């Protein structure tokens, strides 16, 4: 409890994490493909859904004081959590690598004297300095970055809205290549569903359930949602959701570059922190006492390699991968603790009673991923989440019905719980 933080720090870290350059990419997609009402509705509903899921998982992290990867031990089993940790850890840093690639190229085009590779390396060093010290480093940096980002975004929005037809031009926007509300909603959910999966890494520092709820809503709606909406409005008004290029056109190149760097740094150091926790969890289970600081370096190298591989053009495909693999994990965790009522179990016994492998969870993860990948109706990410949750609950209930709850559990172990 001595490590718990106040509400303001929780809000800063959550909002800073979710003010991401991915908001500008999503905003460009939604803003160029929808009218104002459809676009804002998709962004609002998508982030409210994410907020609700984040609250459910965040409360588990708060009550137990566990990272998302220690929670995965409880749900997937000690050995089963190794696979979860490696997959989610690589996804988190691969996503950052794609963003590094996209935005280092953007900065290079605006400031040709600065090579793109130096921007990638510089960002890698920067995010390492804040992530390596854990929550304290994240909170310290975001206390400076978040107010600056909000100020720049508001100034840009005011300038955009007061020029060339005002807000009426946004309301009159008709996309040349329209996308459906469902497609826009799916993009909004997929962009930050991995953040929901990792939210316990932050929420475990909260002092109360109230703080978990407020900070989660602030992060997804106030951070991701508002910046996605601003980027969408920008795309509708001037045809571009890339705030750096928009600000350059307004004669505000330096604020645009600052905005971009802070937004990428804010998200990347949180993902780096979570990935290092993931790899630490996996290594300890496998018997390797590698310190978290070393895994911070390994995780940032994954992002750098991804960036140099040039995957920026595949951003939407990368979102598809995240939208297939991350939602079932979220659904299974919600199902375990809330649908099956395990949230009421004593938090100090969660790890000590974890089985070696919980096959129901692994089967449900595969099933949910397949449903999310193959379905074409509704929102693919939510389809996978719901399928994973239902399959897991059904398999657990069947097993307990056949063998009884105690007998159905795998042999328990305290392996790797340090």
Automatic annotation (TrEMBL):
UniProt-listed Gene3D superfamilies: Hydantoin permease
InterPro entries noted in UniProt: CodB, Pur-cyt_permease
Keywords associated with the record: Membrane, Transmembrane, Transmembrane helix
Pfam families named in the record: Transp_cyt_pur
Any one of the GO CC terms: plasma membrane
Annotated protein name in UniProt: Cytosine permease
Keyword Transmembrane attributed: yes
Transmembrane listed as a keyword: yes
Gene Ontology terms for molecular function: cytosine transmembrane transporter activity
Membrane topology: Multi-pass membrane protein
Family to which this protein belongs: Belongs to the purine-cytosine permease (2.A.39) family.
Main location class: membrane
Annotated transmembrane regions: 7-27, 39-62, 74-98, 110-132, 144-161, 181-200, 212-231, 243-265, 293-312, 318-339, 351-371, 377-398
Cellular location(s): Membrane
């Amino acid at each position: 409890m001595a490590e718990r933080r106040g509400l303001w720090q929780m809000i800063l870290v959550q909002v800073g994490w979710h003010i991401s350059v991915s908001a500008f990419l999503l905003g460009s997609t939604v803003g160029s493909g929808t009218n104002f009402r459809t676009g804002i509705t998709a962004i609002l509903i998508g982030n409210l859904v994410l907020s609700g899921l984040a609250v459910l998982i965040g409360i588990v992290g708060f009550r137990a004081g566990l990272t998302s990867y220690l929670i995965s031990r409880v749900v997937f089993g000690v050995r089963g959590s190794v696979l979860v940790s490696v997959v989610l850890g690589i996804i988190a840093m691969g996503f950052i690598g794609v963003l590094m690639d996209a935005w280092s190229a953007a900065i290079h085009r605006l400031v040709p004297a600065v090579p793109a590779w130096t921007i990638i390396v510089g960002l890698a060093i920067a995010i390492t300095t804040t992530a390596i010290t854990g929550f304290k480093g994240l909170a310290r940096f975001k206390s400076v970055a978040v107010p600056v980002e909000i100020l720049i975004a508001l100034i840009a929005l005011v300038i955009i809205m007061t020029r060339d037809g005002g807000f009426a031009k946004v309301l009159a926007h008709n996309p040349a290549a329209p996308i459906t509300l469902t497609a826009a909603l799916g993009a909004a959910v997929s962009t930050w569903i991995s953040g929901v999966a990792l939210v316990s890494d932050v929420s475990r520092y909260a002092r109360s359930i109230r703080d978990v709820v407020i900070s989660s809503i602030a992060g997804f709606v106030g951070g991701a949602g508002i910046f996605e909406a601003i980027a969408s409005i920008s795309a509708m008004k001037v045809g571009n959701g890339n705030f750096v290029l928009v600000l350059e056109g307004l004669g505000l190149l330096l604020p645009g570059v600052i905005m971009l760097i802070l937004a990428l740094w804010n998200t990347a150091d949180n993902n780096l922190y979570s990935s290092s926790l993931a790899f630490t969890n996996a290594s300890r289970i496998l018997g390797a006492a590698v310190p978290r600081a070393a895994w911070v370096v390994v995780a940032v190298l994954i992002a750098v390699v991804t960036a140099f591989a040039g995957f920026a053009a595949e951003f939407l495909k990368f979102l598809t991968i995240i939208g297939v693999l991350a939602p079932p994990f979220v659904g299974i965790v919600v199902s375990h603790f809330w649908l099956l009522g395990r949230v009421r179990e004593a938090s100090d016994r969660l790890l000590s009673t974890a089985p070696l492998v919980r096959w129901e969870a692994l089967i449900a993860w595969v099933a949910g991923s397949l449903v999310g990948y193959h379905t074409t109706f509704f929102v693919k990410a939510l389809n996978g989440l719901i399928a994973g949750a239902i399959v897991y609950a059904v398999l657990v209930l069947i097993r307990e019905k056949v063998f009884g709850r105690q007998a159905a559990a795998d042999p328990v172990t305290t392996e790797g719980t340090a």
